[in-house]
Amino acid sequence: MSATSWKCAVAETEVVSPGLWLVSTPIGNMGDMTVRAREVLQAAKVVCCEDTRRSGRLLAAISATPERFIVVNEHTEHDAIDTVANLVTSGYVVALISDAGTPAISDPGERLVRAMVERSLPVWSAPGPTALVAAIIVSGFPTDRFVFEGFLPRSGAERRERLAEVSRERRTCVLYEAPHRIERTLIDLVESCGAERRVCLTRELTKMHEELWRGTLAEAVTHVQLTEPRGEYVLVLDATPAITLEITDDDIVGALNDRRGLGLSTRDSVDEVATVLNVSRKRVYDLATSTDNPGANSPKRRKN
Ligand code: SAM
Fold first, then answer.
1. 222-256 pLDDT, tens per residue?
2. Would the CB of 206 count as within 6 Å of ligand 1?
3. Number of Cβ atoms within 10 Å of the Cβ of 118
4. Measured between alpha carbons, how far is 207 from 27 in angstroms, rounded to an integer?
5. Which of 16, 113, 259, 289 is a Cys-bridge partner for 264, taking CB atoms 3.0 to 4.6 Å apart?
6. 12-21, 63-72, 179-188: which range is least confident on average?
7. Relative to the CA of 131, which ligand 1 atom is closest?
8. Among 43-47, 142-146, 258-262, 267-271, where is mean pLDDT lowest?
9. Distance CA 95, CA 19 (A)
10. 177 pLDDT exceeds 70?
């Protein structure tokens, strides 16, 4: 491919240059809509979006009135390529937005951009909110180098391999997760990265019920089990190699009591605590059966 370079006019003349524009929209708080995103969306005659009803509301709120919508989602993105390329070639401003945040970040956009690049057509960005940046900057973990993992594969060998990669990673790791899968993912991360790896769980960033929670992976499992997971999560894993902290009998008894409080049987509690704290099942079982019998247990410190 020959070298191409384009000059964007919007910053200099306030006229939005023709091309495909990737425009970031808020991840919750409408106050995060940038002035430039507004200008580009108001200038765009064509808007590509995942959901016309949802994006239609956003565009109405900023008085943007495109002549045409093109639905771009994981199923339709490929088919939209020729249409978008023809519009851009004809001199249109075509904006691409996703349901929330930055397009092409765990959202449609990547294939469309690649196709424009292959055709030497101009692509511009109006950057703004994205959950991954919002989460990592408040995590307290190193931000000089980090890895964005997006959503882990749902199951099978692909998931196991990715979890193994995350466990070996020496940079801060950022993962996206849906509320109904957060507990499973945290349990899997405990197994791969160890119970003591530190994590920052961010939930509903920029929204009314925004929550930041910090602790170890094992504590995070208990946290999501005790609170009903709701809303959108970003999980930030500390880069620092796990320091092998000593798990005390008190830690185990506390974790067993949490599970019993949730109504789990002794057997299920033992299995889960052994996995989450990465200690032998026999040790947990012995403590569980002695705590069934008050007075028999006198917690003392010992190694895993
Ligand atoms: N393109 C978006 C971006 O720039 O962040 C991401 C879209 S992806 C389909 C949706 C995932 O992003 C959610 O499952 C969650 O992991 C994360 N996410 C989006 N908005 C969020 C928010 N307000 N708080 C926490 N996580 C959020």
1. 999 998 888 999 999 998 664 556 788 998 998 89
2. yes
3. 11
4. 8
5. 259
6. 12-21
7. 5
8. 258-262
9. 8
10. yes
How far apart are the C-alpha atoms of 97 and 49, rounded to whole Å?
Answer: 5
pLDDT class of 292 with cuts at 50, 70, 90: low
| Cα separation, 159 vs 240, whole angstroms | 22
Top-confidence residue, 45 or 292: 45
DSSP 3-state of 73: coil
- pLDDT tens per residue, range 116-164: 999 999 999 999 999 999 999 999 999 999 999 999 999 999 999 999 9
- CA 57-112-69 angle, to 5 degrees, is 30
For residues 124 and 37, the answer to whether their CB atoms sit within 8 Å is no
Paired strand residues for 68: 46
Cα–Cα distance, 146 to 234 (Å, whole number): 14
**Is the pLDDT confidence value at 14 over 90?**
no
Residues in the chain: 304
pTM for the full model?
Answer: 0.79
Q: What are the structure tokens assigned to 52, written together? A: 């016309």
Backbone angles phi, psi at 203, to 5 degrees: -135, 135
Atom of ligand 1 nearest to the CA of 151: 16
- Cβ of 176 closer than 6 Å to ligand 1, yes or no, is yes
Task: Determine the Cα–Cα distance for residues 55 and 42; give it in Å rounded to an integer.
Answer: 13
CB atoms within 10 A of CB 99: 16
Residue among 176, 177, 185 to mutate when testing ligand 1 (max atoms within 8 A of CB) = 176
Strand ranges in the chain using DSSP code E only, listed in sequence order: 19-23, 46-49, 68-71, 93-96, 123-126, 146-151, 172-177, 198-203, 211-216, 233-237
Side-chain-side CA neighbours of 90 within 13 Å: the count stands at 10
Buried b (16+ CB within 10 A) or exposed e, 60-69: eeeebebeee
Encoding tokens for residue 238?
């500390």
